[in-house]
Amino acid sequence: MLTEKEIYDILSEIPDPEIPVITIKDLGILQRVEVSENSCIVFITPTYSGCPAMKMIEDQIKEALAPHQITNISVKLIYSPAWTTDWISTEAKEKLRTYGIAPPQHSSVDKGSILGKPKELKCPQCNSKNTQMISQFGSTACKSLYKCLDCKEPFDYFKCI
Amino acid sequence: MTKQEALFSYCLRLGDNSLILGHRLSEWSSKAPIIEEDLALTNMALDLIGRSVAILKYAAEVEGKGHTEDDLAYRRPERKFYNNLLVEQPNGDFAVTIVRQFFNSTFEYLLYEELMKSKDETLAGIAAKTIKEIKYHLRHATDWMLRLGDGTPESHLRAQKALNDMWMFTDELFEMNEVDEILIKEGITVDLNMLKANWSKKINEVILESTLTVPTSTFMQTGSRQGIHSEYLGYIIAEMQYLQRAYPNAKW
Ligand SMILES: [Zn+2]
Predict the structure, then answer these.
(1) Pick from B189, B152, B158, B154: nearest CA to B174
(2) pLDDT in tens, B136-170
(3) Is this model's pTM higher than 0.95 or not?
(4) Which residues of chain A have a CB within 8 Å of the CB of B121?
(5) Terminal-residue alpha carbon distance, chain B
(6) Neighbours of ion ligand 1 (CB under 5 A)
């Protein structure tokens, strides 16, 4: 049986199903691992309550551990403390930007937007601040849809929660 | 009624509200007026159904009879559902859906903000998670109230009609029974009467800003606390439960 640390390291490599350039550890979804006898509990925090990727992540965790003869795995969702975009590492934010997704600003910055004030957002393609929100809800619950008024490219913004 | 029974019943109420509204919103999939709204409404449906999974899972745990969240969603008869009448009302036109969202999200925002302080740690945790999503739902509904009310004569007319039609389901949001009485004493939930003034204030502000009129009708329809619903819930449940009823324990 592998140690908790070893299992954690293996799971740290699992890419996020929706944004494969970053891992579930980068995103702050992977929390911790508890090992006892021959069972293993993996704790993960969902980004959004109904995030359909959670089931897939659970399957990926089991798949990643299967070659190590760990089969008695349970994946537990923890809701508290609630996931926040502040858990996304700085490196991961840079990877998001390169991938074409505007990374989340600090959650305190986003408070204004919840109250309806417009927010200044940089285009991940050309860095222009001349951007506009098209829709608060994008391709997934965690993203909003924006367009750049300079390079005319649409882009996803990873919204802050 | 014991504290445990009250908590079980309360979790069903919270879970059913999310599940039924989530189901309703999902009916907009591929049919919304514009693609951005298709995404928005179905994303909100996902949030709501996700929340109901967490709450019904906890309900099953509190009940302690070995049920799962799926048993509670797919095997309970209509009379054992405790969602508010508001959330089971048909989608109608886009204005009806928006007004329903607006009334409900404003209410949920106030309720879940209080539930974050609940002495029940699981409910407090779920509330802390879900409040972030409710903020987005509320902003979406509020934006659309302004756009529809202060939009074209047609959108104004439809928004006003929707307000008038949904109005009679708003009192029930604040209705309490023995369940609330027990849980308020335990510090698990909040006195809904205390939320009402704030709710009225918030919705009045938006309705006026939308150039619409706050309905004045005093006839209010209730019943869901006793499991008595409008005719529409039965159809939702028939569709939602069909597969598990026809092929018990089916998995795929
Ligand atoms: Zn650009």
Answers:
(1) B189
(2) 999 999 999 999 999 999 999 999 999 999 999 99
(3) no
(4) 80
(5) 39
(6) A 123, 125-126, 128, 148, 151
